[in-house]
Specification:
The chain is of the alpha/beta class. It has helices at 6-19, 44-53, 69-72, 104-120, 141-156, 174-183, 185-188, and strands at 25-30, 60-61, 76-81, 89-90, 95-97, 128-131, 166-168. The longest helix has 17 residues, at 104-120. 24% of the residues are buried.
């Protein structure tokens, strides 16, 4: 527990989206602790539903389908990672690369293979999510990003109109961000699905 109520997180997120209506927030919701005594006997899923229902429904994507960017602009796309939720994209359906405790060499192999698979699956309705961040020994995240991000940038640079999915990276520079966006040219036209 981070000392912040879920309702407050939702309010802050919706305020951000109101100020930035072209943005999208992908929010994975996961139960990571035992329910507190103040839930009045409700399940985690019931508590989540009550919190979401306190806000306008048009601020949320709660369908188990990958939306187009046009469909989800200005919304929180729920990624459901809890029992009994049945709201949003199911976490179990996300094609994930998240080997986070590994060597730099192995991590790059995992990342590259996952991105290759995403590109080869351009017609699949699956959400691909690649974490390029990892931990190895006592190195700080910034140091590890300095070894990973140039490889990632070399891989992404020059790729156009292809599917990479969503890439989560520590300390990406503006050029890496730009080139990832440029690969998703369907997004720029509003045609691709989230993570395509």
């Amino acid at each position: 527990y981070e000392g912040t109520a879920f309702e407050d997180v939702l309010q802050t997120t919706i305020s951000f989206l109101e100020a930035n209506p072209s943005e999208v927030i992908i929010m994975r919701i996961k139960e990571t602790y035992s329910a507190a005594e103040n839930t009045m006997g409700r399940t985690f899923a019931q508590q989540v539903r009550i919190a979401i229902d306190a806000f306008p429904s048009d601020r949320f994507w709660t369908v188990n389908q990958i939306p187009t960017l046009r469909q989800c602009r200005g919304k929180i796309v729920i990624v459901d990672d809890f029992a009994g939720g049945a709201m949003g994209i199911r976490w179990a359906d996300v094609h994930l690369e998240d080997h986070w405790r590994t060597s730099a060499k192995n991590k790059w192999t995992y990342v590259k293979n996952h991105l290759d698979e995403a590109m080869q699956s351009s017609t699949s309705p699956t959400l691909f999510l690649t974490f390029s961040s990892f931990t190895s020994g006592i190195q700080a995240p910034r140091e590890l990003a300095r070894s990973m991000n140039p490889k990632l940038h070399d891989y992404v640079r020059g790729k156009k109109e292809t599917r990479l999915g969503i890439i989560v990276s520590d300390y990406p520079g503006p050029e890496l961000i730009r080139d990832i966006i440029l690969t998703n040219s369907n997004f720029l036209r509003g045609q691709g699905t989230l993570g395509s």
